[in-house]
Amino acid sequence: MGEGVAFTAHGRASVAAEELESADTVVAVEVVVERVQDHLADGRTEMLDGAHWRWLDRQAAESEPAIVAELQHLGRRG
């Protein structure tokens, strides 16, 4: 997740969209969270940093903004 954040969200997941208009390799999933388990609450562990990554494929990098926008639109409808 990121510095100071580590948790598991327990609940149900279902497919919100089999295919996106902006990418046929992405599936939108809706997660209904029923309970959150905080992995840092007992003080035994510490999250130092989040995952760092970048696209190495130019086409994937260029399509990401459209995918994110479509997922955000789906989220607002839900």
Task: Kindly list the characteristics that best describe this protein.
78 residues, alpha+beta, 1 helix, 26% helix, flat
Q: How many strands?
A: 2
Strand content: 25-35%
Mean pLDDT rating: 92
| Total tally of structural domains | 1
Strand order of the largest sheet: 1-2
Counting DSSP H or I runs of 4 or more residues, the number of helices is 1
Percentage of helical residues? 25-40%
What is Rg? 16 Å
Instruction: Give the SSE string.
Output: EEH
Topology:
Elements: E1 7-17, E2 28-38, H1 58-77
Antiparallel strand pairs: 1-2
Describe the structure.
- With 78 residues, the protein is of the alpha+beta class.
- The protein has one domain (7-77).
- It has one helix spanning 58-77, and strands at 7-17, 28-38.
- A two-stranded antiparallel ribbon has the order 1-2.
- It is flat.
Q: What is shown here, in short?
A:
This protein has 78 residues and is an alpha+beta fold. Helix content is 26%, strand content 28%. It has 1 helix and 2 strands; from the N terminus they run ββα.
